[in-house]
Amino acid sequence: MFKKSERSDAAEAAKSNLYDSGLLTRPDDDKIPPRLIARVGDLLWIIVLAIGIAFCFFASSFCITLLLAAFFSILFDPVITHLERWLIPRPVSAALGIFLGMACVAFLIYAGYGKVTSFAEDLPQYTTRIRDTLKPISQKIQKVQESAGSLNPANAGTAPKKVPVVRLNEEPTWPSYLVRGVGSVWGAIIIGGVVPFLMFFMLVRKDHLSLWAANAFGDRVNVDQFSARLNGMVRGFVFGNLMVGSLLALVSVGAFYAIHMHGAVAVGIASGLLNLVPFVGLILAAVLPLLAATLQFGSAGPFVIIVLTVLILHLIANNLLIPHLIGSRINIGPVAATVGMLFWGWLWGVMGLLLAVPLTAFVKLVADCHPSLIHVSNLLAQKPRPLPRWAVSSQATIIRAIPYFRPKVTTKAKSEE
Predict the structure, then answer these.
(1) Which of 319, 296, 312, 322 is nearest to 255 (CA)?
(2) Digits of tens for pLDDT over the chain (417 positions)?
(3) Kind and range of the H or E element at 59?
(4) Which residues contact residue 186 at a Cβ distance below 8 angstroms, ignoring those fewer than 6 apart?
(5) Which of 116, 334, 398, 415 has the fewest CB atoms within 10 Å around its CB?
């Protein structure tokens, strides 16, 4: 009997510890332990995040089409609203704006196709000039290899054995990276054809979409404030890049015109805009004018001026212009922007690389609207916000702070308290 009582006391003590730690719920306690809710919530978030990434990867063409349509709709909306004030119906103004935009894009593609065709025709001249320039260097390298071989007595008087070369017809990896997310040329054509129609319906049904968002998320998020911040972020990002790109293009045109380069206007504009491309912008902005200069100059002075101009503009843009004109509008840190470029570039290739900064800023906006994601928002932000007292205290306090996670207290429980 004494041993049974000791066992029962030990079992009661162990059960009491489980009750106190929150791992076990008391039979008369209807409240779910906060620690269990937090763990289940974290697990659900991980599962939802993994499913979302998998969906974005396998349904990349659908996601890119939707994002491009929403992105351009936000940019076109002020023009459509302004035309609406002139008593032009919104469907007519939206159709007119989209038609003019498509005409501008078609003109740019036509002009660019002509430049690319002329460049392809002149490509053998470029390769011959580059080969002639590098010929003395290759001859010196060959002489060094021959002299090194003559110093080895084991190889003296013996002819080198020819090793059979096996070549595999493998496709290069960079074209597949360029079309990742789009699929193929026909996929890009389909996306380009669907985006204008989707833009038209988004612009015409703007009020309907706003009402749906307010009914779906209005109890947890201030939809009007979120929409205003999203529109300001997208427009600020685009107009900031246009301002920086225009300034770089203007300085590049002036520098190339000063050295009397043929086609200085076209080459300078292209070099200035290519300087904004993440990661490889400096290389692209320097290669294009250097190729154009190979058929025009025989001395090293113009090449040095081109390289210094592109390098100085790249440093000024990335350290002064972009942080002040673009970084202040999107409020994401340089580390977050770089990691975002790596992630979205891995997910969708070049298209993800171009949309990486606004997509990362969108993730930050979503984190700003959710109280429990304030740590994620501060991780992405350029200037973190101070944490409130409820976010520092405990996870249980965060759960109680979220309205739809707050436990419902019955009238009976209130009377007992």
Answers:
(1) 312
(2) 445 555 566 666 666 655 555 555 555 545 556 677 777 777 888 898 899 999 988 888 888 999 999 999 999 899 888 888 888 899 999 998 899 988 988 888 887 777 667 766 666 666 666 666 666 776 777 777 667 655 555 554 555 555 555 554 555 555 555 556 666 666 777 788 889 999 999 999 988 888 888 888 877 778 888 888 899 889 988 998 899 999 999 999 999 989 888 888 888 898 888 888 877 788 889 888 888 888 778 788 888 999 999 999 988 888 888 877 777 778 888 888 888 888 998 888 888 888 888 899 999 988 888 777 788 888 888 777 766 555 555 455 555 555 544 444 444 444 444
(3) none
(4) none
(5) 415
Residues 6+ apart with CB under 8 A from 133: 294
Phi and psi angles of residue 23, each rounded to the nearest 5 degrees, phi first: -80, -20
Where do we find the tokens 């159709």? Answer: 95
Q: How far apart are CA 372 and CA 398, in angstroms?
A: 6
- The CA radius of gyration of the chain, in Å to the nearest whole number, is 31
Q: Alpha-carbon distance 91 to 98, whole Å?
A: 11
The Cα–Cα gap between 266 and 292 comes to 11
User: What DSSP element (H or E) covers 296?
Assistant: none
Question: Could you say which DSSP state residue 15 is in?
Answer: H
Angle at 133 between CA 284 and CA 285, to 5 degrees: 10
Q: CB–CB of 372/397 below 8 Å?
A: no
